[in-house]
From TrEMBL:
Pathway: Purine metabolism; GMP biosynthesis; GMP from XMP (L-Gln route): step 1/1. It comes from Pseudochelatococcus lubricantis. This is GMP synthase [glutamine-hydrolyzing]. The gene is guaA. PANTHER family: GMP SYNTHASE [GLUTAMINE-HYDROLYZING], GMP SYNTHASE-RELATED. GO terms for molecular function: GMP synthase (glutamine-hydrolyzing) activity. SUPFAM superfamilies: Adenine nucleotide alpha hydrolases-like, Class I glutamine amidotransferase-like, GMP synthetase C-terminal dimerisation domain. InterPro entries: Class_I_gatase-like (IPR029062), GATASE (IPR017926), GMP_synth_C (IPR001674), GMP_synth_GATase (IPR004739), GMP_synthase (IPR022955), GMPS_ATP_PPase_dom (IPR025777), NAD/GMP_synthase (IPR022310), Rossmann-like_a/b/a_fold (IPR014729). The active site is at residues 78, 168, 170.
Length: 517
């Protein structure tokens, strides 16, 4: 086990992720709880994360002293290195403001940290954080790598097995960083590397049971991967204390509602309330054309419907629903934190139940909070969920409403659903589905003239979109070959009544967004 002490870096969870990739269990705890966690976890190694503070300031965060006295290996990253140096009797000088960037480090000495990854006298690219820097090493330490701006880019006290790096080995911009972390957890800390998703599953189940006790849990299903995996995991933990609510707002893709209901009711036998609210949503959306107004209308209705279901469930036996389960992922947490300065607003986007926990006095159960999308997919597979569910592209909470610019009507939604299904069928048939982050069709509120057979047509234009992305934050359009696009266009125009022209969107993000609204 590895203890990761969090000093508030935006990328601390990436350290945990790299450690998990080495099949080693790790726990991230804020520095304020590190001493207690160190005693209970009894880790074989400790990693001190980066963070925004400066060790030269009064009252800046520190690692618990006992960590340095327990004869376990410690790796300090960035701020973690600086506080280690300061705490062990070295000196750190305050720099100007903090700045991140690419740098080259020169390896000066051999170290188990570098073994089979970096060689002496070679230089390697790293992602560096400039700012404060170490100016004098504590006794026992030596420099093992330098860079132009950071003469103490990597330091080591091999006897005590203390290591410090000024750069970030956890980010992909440090190409061999994962190897250095592997050396730390496997070679230096001696962790066996036998932790797997199966272990995560067991541990997550234990945590859910402990949190929930005998309480009732409500989980909103969106049809997406995250909420589905969260629901299956929670059901495994607490059985029918869990009720899932699936609000069908009529903005789903073809066959989606049936798939969700089938999977949960039939395959998993999880209590599921299927709310058919299509008419309500369509009625309230009628005449709404502004994208934000659409999103807000959908969000408001969703909460109303969900809340009504929660009240019904509470009324059944007079016991309130104490918990709301969500499939919040780590990137959701990070994004909300960085945008708003506080983690309280993580209930966002398609989880669409923002505000509900406060209003109904519910506590959140978020078993996937520390995971990344691909890890959630792995967990879903571990839980035996069908590939068609686990591997699917993300789908936005407001659904097809934001893929239908202008006014939404039942007719337009039908046209869009049909065209989208043809497009995705072709993508799957061509074996491209898993290479693409997200693919979908957008029905434009524009009609153009065409000719079909002997007749004139005057029908809608469809735009196809497909992007590659790592996390949805940035994206590139997918470079289909023209033959493929031509085939899709022909099929759609022939098969989908109401469309007579097809275009392909070649905008990246930024400056575009993935969705059109
Ligand atoms: P954009 O359009 O902002 O989308 O580039 C980035 C990713 O987020 C998805 N998306 C949403 N997901 N609720 C969601 O759950 C929403 O309101 C929402 N809007 C966009 C989008 O599909 C893409 O994967």
């Amino acid at each position: 086990k590895i203890l990761i002490v969090d000093f508030g870096s935006q990328v601390t969870q990436l350290i945990a992720r790299r450690v998990r990739e080495e099949r080693v269990y790790s726990e991230v705890v804020p520095y304020t709880r590190a001493a207690e966690a160190f005693r209970t976890l009894k880790p074989k190694g400790v990693i001190l994360s980066g963070g925004p503070a400066s060790v030269t300031e009064d009252f800046s965060p520190r690692a618990p002293e006992e960590i340095f006295e327990a004869e376990v290996p410690v790796l300090g990253i960035c701020y973690g290195e600086q506080t280690m140096v300061a705490q062990l009797g070295g000196e750190v000088e305050s720099g100007h403001h903090r700045e991140f960037g690419r740098a080259e480090v020169d390896v000066k000495a051999e170290s188990p940290l570098f073994e089979e990854v970096w060689r002496v006298d070679e230089s390697y690219p790293v992602w560096m954080s400039h700012g404060d820097r170490v100016t004098r090493l504590p006794d026992g330490f030596k420099v093992v790598a330098t860079s132009e701006n950071a003469p103490f880019a990597a330091i080591a006290d091999e006897a005590r097995r203390f290591y410090g790096v000024q750069f970030h080995p956890e980010v992909v911009h440090t190409p061999h960083g994962a190897g250095l972390l592997r050396n730390f957890v496997r070679r230096i800390a001696g962790c066996a590397g036998d932790w797997t998703m199966a272990t995560f599953r067991q541990e997550a189940i234990a945590r859910i049971r402990e949190q929930v006790g005998t309480g009732k849990v409500l989980c909103g299903l969106s049809g997406g991967v995250d909420s589905a995996v969260a629901a299956v995991l929670i059901h495994e933990a607490i059985g029918d204390q869990l009720t899932c609510v699936f609000v069908d707002h009529g903005l789903l893709r073809l066959g989606e509602a049936e798939r969700v209901v089938q999977l949960f009711r039939d395959a998993y036998n999880i209590p599921l309330v299927h709310v058919e609210a299509q008419d309500l949503f369509l009625k309230e959306l009628s005449g709404v054309t502004d994208p934000e107004a659409k999103r807000k209308t959908i969000g408001r209705l969703f909460i109303d419907v969900f809340e009504a279901e929660a009240r019904k469930l509470a009324a059944q036996d007079g016991k309130p629903v104490e918990f709301l389960a969500q499939g919040t992922l780590y990137p959701d947490v990070i994004e909300s934190v960085s945008l708003t300065g506080g983690p309280s607003v993580t209930i966002k986007s398609h989880h669409n139940v923002g505000g509900l926990p406060e209003r109904m006095n519910m506590k959140l159960v978020e078993p996937l909070r520390d995971l990344f999308k691909d890890e959630v997919r792995k967990l879903g597979r571990e839980l035996g969920m069908p590939e068609i569910f686990v591997g699917r592209h993300p789908f936005p909470g407001p659904g097809l409403a934001i893929r239908c610019p202008g006014e939404i009507t039942a007719e337009k939604l039908d046209i869009l659903r049909h065209a989208d299904a043809v497009y995705l069928e072709e993508i799957r048939r061509a074996g491209l589905y898993d290479d693409i982050w997200q693919a979908f069709a957008v029905l434009l509120p524009v009609r153009t003239v065409g000719v079909m057979g002997d007749g004139r047509t005057y029908d809608y234009v469809l735009a196809l979109r497909a992007v590659t992305s790592v996390d949805g934050m940035t994206a590139d359009f997918y470079p289909f070959d023209m033959g493929f696009l031509g085939r899709v266009a022909t099929r759609i125009i022939n098969e989908v009544k109401g469309i007579n022209r097809v275009t392909y969107d070649v905008t990246s993000k930024p400056p575009g967004t993935i969705e059109w609204e």
